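Hi X.,

You mentioned you wanted examples for the new student's onboarding notes, showing what a folding record looks like when two proteins sit in one file. Here is a clean example. The first protein comes first, with its sequence line followed by its structure tokens.
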Amino acid sequence: MKIKSFAKVNLYLDIVGKRADGYHELVTLMCPIELCDTLRLSFNTNQITVSCNHPDVPEGTENIAYKAAVRFLETAGRPGDGVKIDIKKIIPIGAGLGGGSSNAAAVLSGLNAHFGSPLSASVLMDIGKTIGADVPFFIYGKPAVATGIGEIITPLPHLRPSFVVLVYPRHILSTRAVFKNFNLTLTKKEKIHTKNIFKLDWNTNIHGLLFNALESSAFTLSPMIREIKETLLDSGADGALMSGSGSSVYGIYDNPETAEKAYNLLSRQRRWQVFNTRLRV
């Protein structure tokens, strides 16, 4: 079984509080993009194994895809079954694109399809949130507002198609460091009042509503991220934003020809990895 495992970008991300357990409460609008890994699931085994073409992705029990397979088979009452998971990694790791969580969601959905859909989507999402906060979003697979620590999903329909040029600076930015450097008490005048995010007209004004509260923290830790954002805007992007806690930055374009020109221009920067993709709406 061959499965596509799509990346995501955050179109809006606000940190609204910190919980007693140390996790931050957030409100974020996430949207899948066409950039994807490919997973191949093979079932002629009674063991769970994971392999990946990327040297920095853990294999075996440390991989989030392995954990997803274990949880699915336990919940579905099939502890004696196994699966061989082979991951062809295209999504940059440590880039704020959710590649690992997407892989876990793809395994849950793929196993469910293979075994005749014994589990409902809501049960899959319940399993997913025990593995990673973004996994329920990837199981849902469409634009959605995520709240809590990211595990509570509310659909946001009618998001318009847009073209995306995504830039990865070829280095990982520590999520822990970005949050540690983030000052919750700071406010920004360009910030949208978070409670209104469900009411905003994302269909006609997507680039005017882009916001990520973690950007200033990331800019301090990695000035190159600010440079990439400015370069995307100079290339003709209608809006640009860091995704998640970084380190990738993307530009939104209404016109595919402008996006293609920007992709060609930024691709000349050999120190960066550049992708020409689009929102999956």
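Then the second protein repeats the pattern, sequence line and then tokens:
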Amino acid sequence: MSWLDVFSAVCLIGGALSCLLGAIGLLSFPDVTARLQAATKPQTLGLILILIGTAVQLDFVYASGLILVGLFQMLTAPVLAQLVGRAAYRADSVDRDSLVVDELGDRIERERRVR
């Protein structure tokens, strides 16, 4: 067993644990904003770790495809979370009293006053 195998195993186990913790948070957190955090950050980290653990075992030609998958995930997950969060906010699914800063609420109020 080489150090590359150990590194790969640590990355795969760490990624699986991160995904598991994200799934548990997704099921147990009370509101939409907390669930979005659980759905994006640990899941993205877990996927990246799993991809790294897999890529170190492959030739570079095949690992380069995994790099593209990781980059695509890192680009799309925050954008989708932002869109879902805005939709939930506009549908009154977010407890606005629990927000520390409410920039979207201020912007919506300014737009209503202009109209």
